[in-house]
């Protein structure tokens, strides 16, 4: 199943901004924008304790192929810590922007080994125009085509064959995503363009990446150490990619010509994942993607509490709210990518998502609804 937004701009809707302002006021009055210091300090301190415990366990196990399982454990721990870096970068943890910035630097660069500045630049552009062609860097990748134009740029038969099946190799490709994120971050901090806190980022990255390699070589023979790194990076990339992919992949694409108000720009292209508290733990709160995009600085624990207000508001103004199971979302991701890659098939027909005026709203207020078609 794939979808897109039509190129024609939607009718202008009166009261949209004030409606969302009213929702924001309700959210603030309910205390849902307050900081959750206890929650985050527990996680931050707990992350350091778990890393220390993992290091002790790694040295205790010593030279053993069981360390490959330990590499997977480290990858899961790194992903969970990276989710904390994501929260800090969105100003969710502290009221002070400076505290959030330095927390992100320590968490991302020093603990995870990724460039905070690289991720922040990329992710900020994503939030400003999710799934918008020409704006969102997350749909402008070299290895995977998210739009027909990207899929059809290759004429060689081998590339065309691969593009038609890219959905099937998307998740295996995520095994390389961990390495790619580390490389992209390093390239940014050593580039010639201006980089804020360049030497802080470089120092943290050298300590983190060099420290891990040194630890591995002190405990393991070179071949086993290389295998450890391979497993750790592969599982890290797969976990990170699998948490972020269902948020937007397969949801409507936005034409560069299309102008949407903030509510629709965020809700129509985002997908929530059902599953409750355990899913929130697994996905670092990214399962509540709609609420996160509407209130990006809201602390993670409050996203679940604001959900009912958002659903009620979307229903009142006629904006579709998408939520499904994780496995169904993965199925839509695969189907969308395969359909985009088929040159002889229109990927925007199954279903076509159109922005239309519906006359059935109370008091004559226009709304937007999904117009679905089937193959």
Question: Keywords, please?
Answer:
single chain; 375 residues; mainly alpha; two-stranded parallel sheet; two-stranded antiparallel ribbon; 16 helices; disordered N terminus; disordered C terminus
Shape by Cα distribution: globular
User: Structural class given helices, strands, pairing?
Assistant: mainly alpha
Largest pleated sheet: 2 strands, parallel
Mean pLDDT equals: 86
Q: Secondary-structure element order, as H and E?
A: HHHHHHHHHHHHEHHHEHEE
The amount of helix comes to 55-70%
- Unreliable parts: 1-15, 344-375
N/C terminus separation: 10 Å
Rg estimate, integer Å: 22 Å
How many helices? The count is 16
Strand order of the largest sheet: 1-2
**What share of residues are in beta strands?**
under 5%
The tally of strands reads 4
Describe this protein's structure:
With 375 residues, the chain is an all-alpha fold. 60% of the residues lie in helices and 2% in strands. The protein has 16 helices and four strands. The protein has helices at 16-29, 37-61, 67-89, 97-112, 116-128, 148-151, 157-163, 166-173, 177-189, 198-219, 222-248, 262-267, 276-283, 289-294, 300-317, 326-341, and strands at 272-273, 323-324, 356-357, 368-369. The strands form two sheets. Strands 1-2 form a two-stranded parallel ribbon. Strands 3-4 form a two-stranded antiparallel ribbon. Mean pLDDT is 86; it is low at 1-15 and 344-375.
């Amino acid at each position: 199943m794939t979808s897109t937004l039509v190129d024609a701009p939607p009718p202008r809707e009166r009261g949209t901004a004030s409606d969302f302002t009213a929702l924001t006021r309700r959210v603030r009055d309910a205390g849902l924008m307050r900081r959750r210091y206890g929650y985050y300090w527990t996680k931050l301190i707990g992350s350091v304790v778990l890393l220390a415990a993992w290091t002790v366990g790694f040295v205790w196990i010593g030279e053993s192929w069981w360390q490959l399982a330990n590499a997977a454990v480290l990858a899961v721990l790194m992903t969970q810590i990276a989710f904390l870096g994501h929260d800090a970068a969105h100003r969710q943890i502290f009221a002070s922007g400076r505290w959030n910035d330095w927390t992100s630097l320590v968490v991302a660069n020093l603990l995870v080994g990724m460039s905070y500045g690289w991720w922040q630049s990329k992710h900020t552009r994503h939030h400003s125009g999710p799934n918008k062609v020409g704006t969102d860097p997350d749909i402008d990748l070299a290895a995977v085509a998210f739009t027909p134009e990207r899929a059809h740029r290759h004429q060689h038969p081998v590339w065309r064959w691969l593009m038609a099946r890219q959905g099937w190799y998307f998740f295996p490709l995520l095994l390389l995503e961990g390495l790619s994120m580390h490389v992209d971050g390093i390239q940014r901090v050593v580039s010639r363009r201006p980089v804020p806190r360049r030497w802080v980022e470089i120092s943290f990255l050298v300590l983190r990446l060099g420290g891990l390699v040194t630890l591995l070589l002190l405990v393991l023979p070179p071949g086993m150490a290389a295998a450890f790194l391979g497993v750790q990076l592969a599982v890290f990339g797969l976990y990170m990619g699998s948490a972020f992919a269902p948020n937007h992949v397969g949801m409507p694409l936005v034409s560069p010509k299309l102008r949407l108000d903030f509510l629709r720009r965020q809700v129509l292209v985002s997908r929530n994942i059902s599953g409750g508290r355990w899913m929130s733990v697994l996905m670092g709160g990214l399962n509540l993607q709609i609420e996160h995009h509407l209130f990006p600085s809201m602390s993670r624990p409050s996203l679940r509490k604001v959900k009912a207000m958002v659903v009620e508001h979307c229903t009142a103004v006629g904006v579709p709210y998408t939520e499904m199971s994780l496995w169904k979302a993965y199925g839509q991701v695969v189907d969308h990518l395969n359909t985009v890659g088929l040159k002889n098939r229109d990927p925007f027909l199954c279903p076509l998502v159109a922005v239309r005026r519906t006359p059935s709203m109370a008091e004559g207020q226009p709304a937007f609804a999904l117009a679905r078609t089937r193959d």
